[in-house]
Amino acid sequence: MSLVRIVGALDPHVHLRGMEWAHKGDFATETAAALAGGYTAVLDMPNTPPPTTDSQGLERKLDDLGRNARCDYGVWLGAHPSGVRPEAELALLARGVCGIKLYCGHTTGGLTITASQMDRHVASWPGPGVLAAHAEGESVSVFLTALARHGKRGHLCHIDTARAVAEVAEHKSRGTKVTAGVCPHHLLFCDRDLPSLGPRGVMKPPLGTPSDREALWEGIRRGVIDVVESDHAPHTWDEKLGLPTPFGVPGLETTIPLLFTAVREGRITADRAVELVSVAPRRIFGLDPRPAGTYTLVDVGARRTINQESLYTSCRWTPFSGMEVWGVIRRVVIRRTVVFEDGEVLAPKGFGSNLYDNFC
Ligand code: DOR
Ligand code: ZN
Hints:
This protein is an alpha/beta fold. The protein has helices spanning about 25-35, 55-70, 85-95, 115-125, 140-150, 160-175, 185-190, 195, 210-220, 235-240, 255-265, 270-285; strands at about 5, 10-15, 40-45, 70-80, 100-105, 130-135, 155, 180, 225-230, 295-305, 325-335, 335-340, 345. The protein is globular.
């Protein structure tokens, strides 16, 4: 066995579903998937029904997560297209979330805002959490410019093109406080794979060209890209076969093994892989860098084939099905309790804690 220890692996970008979308996945099944994938904590996105855009939506989600989550968690607030929340309410909401998400492009959930709304949301966010954006094409520079103009700290989610990598690099060199994330599907697939992937290749942002994909790897190596985030977004297979095809793919159980496969292939070092899934996301999202008794052991010398039948995610399919990967999750420990070992999830529902309870 060749074990790598990751302290407090954190996926800052997941759609656990639950509540009125429990048929796609719920907080118990999808946090089981997080543990099976080697994560000790996840940050859940707000584009759910009901949306996490006000105190009622936040309370409903936190209540459900509190009863069902098997791993630790944080919740994203969502910027609502109807406008910025009143100042006092926003200040209160900000203390219970990891940050606010701005949807600046059409995707699942109907929270898309316009460019001028984006500027207002950026200007009014009180922190301490992070402003994050789903931005594609032109809206990448609108977001980066808004961060620079208002001196705010932000995270650009799932960057997908060579142009976005160049824009982030430019802004970082000018001192804009921005970090960027990338998803495994954008690192491993491209538009040429669409015919073989079918509905498994439909997500937002969409798959790019082979040169976009190369620029993403280069962005990781040069430190322009800071984190790898799964954008875990389960939809049932029946839904994926319907029209219009819903955007999104699951990713919690495949990201860490795929990254250690990239290590094996010499694309990145093992230290960089650990940085991308733990050190950097913990720093960006304001969490203790060395949480006591909270770690994952990955056997990076073990090889296996990704098999969708053995997934914990309730959708039970993956675009990575059939791929050979290096890296088997042997054990996950949270606050000194073994929560996953050799294929078995051991944490009961409700074991997970909210990492942003009274965040200041
Ligand atoms: O592919 C995606 N799926 N991209 C998103 O932005 C949202 C996500 C979802 O919630 O289904
Ligand atoms: Zn997402």
